[in-house]
Amino acid sequence: MVAARGLDEAFLSPKYEECLDPYLLPQMREAVERIKFAVKNHEKCLIYGDYDVDGVTASTVLYDALRLAGIDDIEIMLPNRFVDGYGMSIKVVQRAISDGVKLVLTVDCGSRNHDIVAELRKNGVDVVVTDHHECEETLPDALAVVNPKRKDAEKYVKMALEGSNLASKEFMIKKAVGELRELAGAGVAFKIAQALMQEGLIPEGQEKWLLDLATIGTICDSMALRGENRRICKYGMLVLEKTRRPGLKELMMRAGVKKLSSDAIGYQIGPRLNAAGRMDTAEKALNLLMSKRRAEAALLATELENLNDQRKHQQNSAVKEIAARGVGENPVIIEQGDWHEGVLGIIAGRLVEEYHRPAFVLGVNSGELKGSGRSFGDFSLAEALEACRGQIIGGGGHAAACGLRLKMEQLDGFRAAVNDYYRSLNLKNQERYLEAREDVSVGNFEDFSLELMDEIRLLEPFGEGNMMPIFRLPEVRVMEVARLGAGKQHLRLLLWDQFDHGLKVMRFSAPEDYLRLCPGDVVDAWVTLEENVFRGIRSVEGRIVRLAWN
Q: Which residue has the higher pLDDT, 212 or 367?
């Protein structure tokens, strides 16, 4: 499996000391010099972040880094998803002026907010942008734009490596550019902390305590876990296990995290942090991460738990409502209803998973329709919106996800236009992009040993670019079927191989056709493995990725 994935010892055992030099990032030198000036002159600083997990963790990472560097007067400002939308709003200008802020530092945003940056500069406020989103040809007029996706990013790597005696310099330049492009917003903020450590503003080693949040931001923003992100997250998992943050400890306890893993981050920690920005205000997640008192953290963790429960209830209700009325036969699903704006993207993702078609989900907002799209394969939502520009008020995003706004009376026209556009592409066999592909086929369940689990753990953390190994179990028999959960939506099976060995497997929120399985059915199953501990006894169980049968 390791050989099949092209992995080597550097991947299996990454070294923190081999982290890329932070000064390979564009304008890192200018950013650090401006921070040093703020430290020397006791300036007031404002961090402007984003409302998702990456934005909230990045804001906290940069706040802690600046405090460690010697800046005492720091504020954090997060946008409201429902009022401000994504990116910098004019409110940051008003707040900076009223609060006497001398330096605004962005995290996870700012690269496309030219007007807001210009307005801040016009009012005597310096701006340092740190971000990881795609840039336009022209950058905002900030003192520094520290973004690895700048069009000229390679130039800065070459400048930083100039004079080095690397045997394969061109290869190393391309490698560094590629690895840095995959940094999350929290990853870029962590590189700022590393640079401040190199300058002697942060005691050596203290920056490592920020790796817990850098790891959460990286995994939850679905960044590729190779290269620099592998180094950040491998050590970040170690820091997270002994985190000093009362808020994270309380959150993990409320979420029932028994064993720390990328799954725990992606499916337990991340959704609860995200629920704040989706259902209420992201400041609740921020306050939790920054809390110093256990009692306060416990109250905030309970609030996030409740918000996450609301989020799950609303998205599940919407999916059931859509299923009850049917999604029609068009190649692109477009659904509109009275649903909470914060869960529209999740609902669209669930529709893609359930029906294997691109989906737009829209809700009513101030007399307009506002929503999110999700796609896969060769159908780019960004290109689709451009093709249907005359049928919407506005929108944008990338190939797999987007946001959009349209008038109520435009809905039928948009539905027709986007489906006509899809048909014009003559796309074939798109479902193949959603099908799980095995790393290896296994016919004997005795191969699933605890020793194998120990070897699989060497590949942790899992995520984009380093997915959990998938095992195909060909022609196995279903011996027992159980439906679990309040709505009987979860599925647990006991599978039997041809050698009469059993394996328990589970699927949460199983598709309807899976729930119709009966004892005696023969299936092909694709599963990932997990270790279960019950009353001190360790065993290997499976998580269903996909089932197929005739």
A: 212
- C-alpha 104 chain-centroid distance: 25
Separation of alpha carbons 174 and 177, rounded Å = 5
Handedness of CA 220, 174, 396, 109 (dihedral sign): positive
pLDDT at 297 over 90: yes
H helices present in 70-164, as ranges: 91-99, 114-122, 153-161
Is the pLDDT reported for residue 230 higher than 90?
yes
Q: What is the pLDDT of residue 166?
A: 64
Mean pLDDT rounded to a whole number for the chain: 93
Could you read off the pLDDT of 160-210 as tens digits, one per residue?
Answer: 888 776 667 888 899 999 999 999 999 999 999 999 999 999 999 999 999
CB atoms inside a 10 Å sphere around CB 63? 24
Q: What DSSP letter does each residue of 173-217 carry, written as one string?
A: HHHHHHHHHT--HHHHHHHHHHHHHHTTSS-TTGGGGGHHHHHHH
Please give the Cα distance from 464 to 140 (Å, whole number).
30
DSSP strand pairing (401-407 vs 394-397): antiparallel
Using the structure block, give the residue that is written with the tokens 């592998």.
230
Q: Which DSSP category does 16 fall into?
A: G
With vertex at residue 346, the alpha carbon angle to CA 86 and CA 190, rounded to the nearest 5 degrees, is 50
DSSP 8-state secondary structure symbol assigned to residue 87 = S
pLDDT in tens, 83-104: 877 789 999 999 999 999 999 9
Number of other residues whose CB lies within 10 A of the CB of residue 483: 13
Find the distance separating the first CA and the last CA of the chain, reported in whole Å.
29
Residue 173: is it exposed, middle or buried by C-beta count within 10 angstroms (0-12/13-18/19+)? middle
Q: What is the mean pLDDT of residues 276-297?
A: 96
Query: Worst-scoring range by mean pLDDT, 50-64, 151-165, 444-458, 484-498?
Result: 151-165
In angstroms, the CA 426 to CA 540 distance is 44
Contact 462, 263 (CB under 8 A): yes
H, E, C per residue of 324-392:
HHCCCCCCCEEEEECCCHHHHHHHHHHHHHHHCCCEEEEEEECCEEEEEEECCCCCCHHHHHHHCHHHC
In 3D space, the residue among 496, 498, 499, 510 whose CA is nearest the CA of residue 544 turns out to be 510
Is the bond into 511 cis (omega within 30 degrees of 0)? no
- Kind plus residue range of the DSSP H or E element containing 300: helix 294-325
Q: Tally helices (H) and strands (E) across the chain.
A: 20, 16
**How far is Cα 463 from Cα 270, in angstroms, rounded to an integer?**
13
| Residue 120 and residue 103 in contact, taking contact as beta carbons nearer than 8 Å | no
Mean pLDDT to the nearest integer, 300-313: 95
Q: How far apart are CA 511 and CA 488, in angstroms?
A: 12
- The tens digit of pLDDT for each residue in 397-441 reads 778 888 899 999 999 999 999 999 999 999 999 999 888 889 999
